[in-house]
Design goal:
Layout (H helix, E strand, L loop, with lengths): L1 H28 L3 H9 L3 E3 L6 E3 L4 E2 L5 E2 L2 H8 L2
Antiparallel strand pairs: 1-2, 3-4
The structure holds zinc ion.
């Protein structure tokens, strides 16, 4: 009886692992609902107005003029102190 219980638990764990693997691989290839989740994970990339490098929006520095820069140094170079 105990062996049967462990077999059932093992089966559930294997099924759970297979399912989670399937979900992640499907999301990697192409999916309908998983693509939306992926878009949330991938941050918006912005281009530095000074050197043209692409940086995540959260790491960018926005000047008063609305232009985006990769660093405060480039913002100062472009706008002036
Ligand atoms: Zn820059």
């Amino acid at each position: 009886m105990k062996l049967l219980l462990w077999a059932a638990i093992g089966f559930i764990v294997v099924m759970w692992l297979l399912r989670s693997n399937k979900v992640s691989s499907a999301g990697h290839a192409s999916g309908t609902s998983s693509t939306a989740n992926k878009d949330k994970l991938i941050e918006t990339m912005v281009q530095c107005a000074h050197c043209g490098v692409y940086i995540p929006a959260s790491e960018s520095v926005t000047a008063a003029s609305g232009k985006v820069f990769c660093s405060d140094e480039h913002r100062l170079k472009h706008v002036g102190p």
